[in-house]
Amino acid sequence: MSFTVHGLAVSQGIAIGHAHLVSHALLEVAHFTVAPKHVEAEVTRLRSAVATVKTELIGLKAVSGSAPSEVDAFLGMHIMFLEDPMLVDAAEALIRTRRANAEWALVQQMEQLVEQFEAIEDAYLRERKADVVQVVERVVKVLLGHPGHLPPKRKDGLGTIVVAHDLSPTDTIGFKDHAVAGFITDVGGPTGHTAIVARSLSIPAVVALRHIRHVVKDDELIIIDGIRGVVIVDPDERVLEEYRLRKAAVELERSKLKRLKSTRAATLDGEEVQILANIELPPDAIQAKGVEADGVGLFRTEFLFMSRDTWPDEDEQFEAYKAVVKTMAGKPVTVRTLDVGADKELEGATRAEDNPALGLRAIRYCLAEPKMFLTQLRALLRASHFGRMKILIPMLASSHEIDQTLVLLEKAKAQLRERKIKFDEAVPVGGMIEVPAAALCLGAFTKRLQFLSIGTNDLIQYTLAIDRGNEAVAHLYNPLHPAVLRLIHQTIQAGAKAGVDVSVCGEMAGDPDCARLLIGMGLRQFSMHPAQILEVKQAILRADAADLTPKVQRLLKLDDPDRLREAVEKL
């Protein structure tokens, strides 16, 4: 019987294929007592399973060169968890003290770690609890002798739709080789690894379907609508034919977009627009170059610091920043300084806070750790000698923070001069507009900084007091709220008046539906994930800035969110 389920679309596209259910090994783990003489053998059995999984992960990491850089980062994170004494050593202790079987001991320790992750405020890090679960699941499968594999390619030409409670990034590396057309999961969100990998591989995916794994049967025909967030199970012939036509149209549109790669982004009335790329790791710059981005608008450096035991030293950071600058070959590269908080655990620097989102994070954290911050600033300055680098400071709220940062930057320059190391003496410094206080006091920013970048993700959350990672209030997260749009508009206008470049690097920049709105506000610099660049470029090429400007001016006077949304749709 055909039925439809609605979830969260995290990777666009349409997929048609047969269901392949991925088992969840941790749902049922037996608990039994081990005889005293067999306790050490049980510990050895656990160590052997952990070693097997670690070897598999290291092997996957070695061959993941063609996979997105996110996959490589996740593999490193999983290996790190296997080496964490809080997981494996603690499980061994349980085996010895409770004389428990290895599977049960490991799962018990995993549950304790998951509880700790659930207390973290940051959405990205909170969802890393899934990585702990997946690592343990992989070890449990080895202990139980159920490794699990994807089916071979089907003769009917249809792909495989992976149906799971959740998916590990390690599961995704072989997706293309197994003709996986898409995947659907019970859980997940836009910042989860499933979503990140899906977008990187351009595989349609719908998540947060709750109990989809329990209502779908193996080999059932499934349609994934990754545009609307709809999953259709066992569709009738009429619906199937409709989606075949839609799928062909989507694929045709994608192939047409590739023709825009070398086209200069400009509106119909000749307004030039810069389209830049957001990246997390140095290899991402290759993807940005592949779609001929105008540069890197946001290099998130925190990914160099996370999933490791020690902070990266100056030379390691310098090599990473230099690699990106050289890859972009003369195009601008905007590097954001470390954006972490107390909720993001860095070795030897954990602070307990009741509300980390409003605590010591981003630039506040860096100014509280001047030695670490100076190390990063020196590495950035050294890399500036090899191309067009710009330094971006996150979460600024006052002129005092800007002044402190500039003092430290001058100190870093003096230290490099003493060492006779070359760098760009006039490297531009900019600030992120992420909190309402910054958007409402822009004069202090435009006087001290060379450029501004609007981080819409945080600006929306702080303006509306909504955590979009919290399912209870996520539906209230509204990029088109009048207050949010006015803050964005006045930031763009203040920048233009002061002769300071302004870009948008949050998710709004990568949304084609928002492109016309932002063009009408006066925005001429967009920064987004490389996979979104061509679609946004197409929207810009179809826009008329002169026609949009007065329409957007009228639209911004609306106070009712529903009326405003309707007005945006009419643009």
Across the major sheet, the strand order is 1-8-7-3-4-5-6-2
Oligomer: single chain
What is the count of DSSP helices, taking H or I runs of 4+ residues? 24
Q: Characterize the main sheet.
A: 8 strands, mixed
Overall SS class: alpha/beta
What Rg do the Cα atoms give?
25 Å
> What is the approximate shape?
globular
**Could you tell me the strand content as a percent range?**
5-15%
Structure explained in plain terms:
This protein has an eight-stranded mixed β-sheet. Strands 15-14-13-12-11-10-9-16 form an eight-stranded parallel β-sheet. The chain is globular. The longest helix is centred in the first third of the chain and has 24 residues, at 39-62. The protein has helices at residues 39-62, 69-82, 88-98, 102-118, 123-126, 129-144, 169-172, 193-201, 212-215, 237-257, 284-290, 302-305, 314-327, 363-368, 370-384, 399-418, 436-440, 442-448, 456-464, 482-498, 512-521, 533-541, 545-555, 561-570; strands spanning 3-6, 8-11, 14-21, 159-164, 180-185, 205-207, 221-225, 230-233, 274-279, 296-300, 333-336, 389-393, 429-433, 451-454, 501-504, 525-528. 45% of the residues are buried. Strand 5, helix 8 and strand 6 (205-207) form a beta-alpha-beta unit. By secondary structure, the protein is an alpha/beta fold. The chain is built from 24 helices and 16 strands. The model has no long low-confidence stretch (mean pLDDT 86).
